[in-house]
Amino acid sequence: QVQLxxxxxxxxxxxxxxxxxCAASGRTFRMYTLGWFRxxxxxxxxxxxxxxxxxGNTRYADSVKGRFTIxxxxxxxxxxxxxxxxxxxxxxxxxxxxxxxxxxxxxxxxRSYDYWxxxxxxxxxx
Length: 126
Prior knowledge:
Elements: E1 4-7, E2 10-13, E3 18-24, E4 33-39, E5 46-51, E6 58-60, E7 68-73, E8 78-83, E9 92-99, E10 115-116, E11 120-125
Parallel strand pairs: 2-11
Antiparallel strand pairs: 1-3, 3-8, 4-5, 4-9, 5-6, 7-8, 9-10, 9-11
């Protein structure tokens, strides 16, 4: 079992930055694929970024590429989402997710992750 707890959300002006954190329990954290998803009101949960256990594979949604960066600190059992040049359309609840496997063909699907955090709200004002 893995438990995930997100933090770092808040209200920011367009063009600003935020860093989300997701602290995980579990001794084998370094082996897990980690992902970030987001869900805006009235919309489906969508993929944002993912990284495999070794960190050798990272993927981003086109909408955040060049602005967001996923990183992990295995010593702290924490995954981060660094968000820059934020836009109002980035407003959503952000969720971190984890799974024991890296699915190269479906890393962007919610069903590829067994474990989820409770979410943290990010609001970007124009």
